[in-house]
Structures are given as C-alpha cells and as structure tokens.
Amino acid sequence: MKLYIIRHIQTEYNLKNILQGSINVPSVIVNKDVLMHIENNKKQLYNIDFDAVYTSEYDRTQITATLHGFKSFTISPLLNELSFRDFEGKSKDDLIKTTNGLWITNPEASLLSTEISQLKTQILQFLEEIAAYKNVLIFSHGAFTRGLMSMIEFGVLSEMNKISIPNNKLITIEK
C-alpha cells in the first residue's frame, strides 16, 4: 500500500508557531507560493488512481483537499489532530519547556501521554481501515502525520517529534 499524505495548508497559528490541536482553525493562508506548491503537488498526484481520499473533521484539511482539486473525500475522525489540552492556542515552545523536552524526546512519557495513547489508537485503527487499499491520499495534520510516519518507520511514537513536516508538503510512504 502507498500512502500519499499532505499536511494541511499553513494557518495563522502555524505561522506564529501556536498549537492548534483540536481547535478548528479554518483560515488557511493562500498566496502565490502556496498556489504554486499546490500545482506541484497536483502534478505529482496526477496519474495516480486513488482507492480513497481522506480528510479529518477539521476545516483546514478539507479546504486543503478542495484546493488540490478533490471535491469528494471521506471525512474521518481518526485523522483528527492530537488534542494539546491546555496548550492549544499557546506556543509550541511552551509545551516543550513545560515538559522539560519530553515532548520531543519521549512524548509518550510527557504530560500529554493520554493524548499520545489516543493518537496511537487512531493511527492503528486508520491503518486497519485502509489495509485493503493500494493507493490512499490523506489530507492531515502535523502530529497525526508525524505519528503515522513514526509508527510505520520505527514501530513506535517516540520518534514522532523528531520528524519535521512542512505545511502543504506531499509525503509518500510505502507500507
């Protein structure tokens, strides 16, 4: 199976390094550079016959899918972004500082361990749901995508925050 993943287009929160998590921040930043990047992504996806196209329940992924030319997609709560609890709307640096760096080195041992456990469950359920497919396109979020990559590449979530994924970046993973 091949997974094609696009992290949603940058929002004002992303620009300011603020954690969105479960906050439904619908306003994506669309400018000339973003549109050029979308066109590049579309060229890479052009000849691929997708068995399924997925977004999360949040507007930012659905807007990104629509801007990439997809009008029909499955909205799955399994793709929803990690809840950052009290850190939503705050700087990512605040989370890193408060967890004494555990958010980067071992998120499963951080004060968001319950949310990380839930993220792992979401990822495993999603992979089970799409197991029969050959090509799947996913419009997703930063933590979900990093978690998915960490689970596939390393078998654990502990590496997820050592992975960097820019907004609107197309990533291909073969599983």
What's the CATH first level?
Alpha Beta
| Distance linking N and C termini | 5 Å
Q: How many domains?
A: 1
In the sheet with the most strands, the strands line up as 3-2-4-1-5
How would you sum up this structure, described in words?
β2 (52-55), α3 (59-67) and β3 form a beta-alpha-beta unit. The longest helix is centred in the C-terminal third of the chain and has 17 residues, at 113-129. This protein has helices spanning 12-15, 32-45, 59-67, 92-98, 102-105, 113-129, 142-154, and strands spanning 2-7, 52-55, 74-75, 135-140, 170-174. Helix content is 39%, strand content 13%. The chain starts with a strand and ends with a strand. It has a single domain, classed as Rossmann fold, CATH 3.40.50.1240. The chain is of the alpha/beta class. The protein has a five-stranded mixed sheet with strand order 3-2-4-1-5.
Topology:
Layout: E1 2-7, H1 12-15, H2 32-45, E2 52-55, H3 59-67, E3 74-75, H4 92-98, H5 102-105, H6 113-129, E4 135-140, H7 142-154, E5 170-174
Parallel strand pairs: 1-4, 2-3, 2-4
Antiparallel strand pairs: 1-5
